[in-house]
Amino acid sequence: MRIVLLGAPGAGKGTQCKQIVDKYGLLHLSSGDILRQERAAGSELGKKAQSYMDSGGLVPDEIIVEMMASAISNAPEAGFVLDGFPRTVNQAGELDASLAEAGSSIDVILNLEVDDSVIVKRITGRRSCPKCGAVYHIENMKPKTAGKCDADGTELIQRPDDTEEVVANRLKNYHQQTRPVVDYYKANNTVYKLDANKDADEVKVLMFDILDSLISA
Length: 217
Ligand code: AP5
Fold this sequence. Notes:
- It is a single chain.
- The protein is of the alpha/beta class.
- The protein has helices at about 15-25, 30-40, 45-55, 60-75, 90-100, 115-125, 165-185, 200-215; strands spanning about 1-5, 25-30, 80-85, 110-115, 125-130, 135, 190-195.
- It has a five-stranded parallel beta sheet, with helices on both faces. Strands 5-6 form a two-stranded antiparallel sheet.
- Bound molecules: BIS(adenosine)-5'-pentaphosphate.
């Protein structure tokens, strides 16, 4: 199964991808996580992406498309779930073209819908583990011990682009450049809309209902 999970910054894409991976055994391909790994490794790609990410802008399409095509080419037979990609209509077209060349296509598009008013609180309260990537929230999804990762005890960090000022720019770019991707997909596919203002467990149940019904169809 090949899934695209769409949604604004802080909609819960990473949180729900983890659930999909645990249940369906797909590969989680997050463009944001891959970029952060490249930055941590000090690669050329990471250096090129740095200023765009820190200001809340989008990294140029040509960099992202190549990076994600390479990641997708290593995906297992079971499939993958894309998180944060595609983020422009051009990226979506490039993705479709490269999958078609390999004789495949996206099977499911899920769109997490969240009110802008909820997003700032979610993002500024997010804390993540720099070692394993686990994501928490200081109010909604607290770790068992404050400031420490449940899985490995590592000190949790706040992403540098998770400040109120940068979030405002990320949201502006989402509405201008990424929201049109929903309409791109709607033209030829069913886009499953999920109310992601709800509690994360409720969103998971809604999402699993959709995926299970598609698998058994
Ligand atoms: P990226 O890492 O993709 O960031 P994003 O899309 O802004 O998404 P987030 O990771 O902020 O949020 P999420 O939806 O995964 O939410 P999460 O589950 O963590 O991209 C970062 C940057 O990289 C971009 O700004 C850009 O510069 C660049 N980039 C990446 N991809 C690119 C591309 N394709 N093209 C160009 N540039 C690209 O949840 C957020 C918080 O809320 C957490 O604390 C979580 O615990 C909590 N939470 C989650 N769900 C719920 C819920 N239902 N109820 C309550 N709390 C919840």
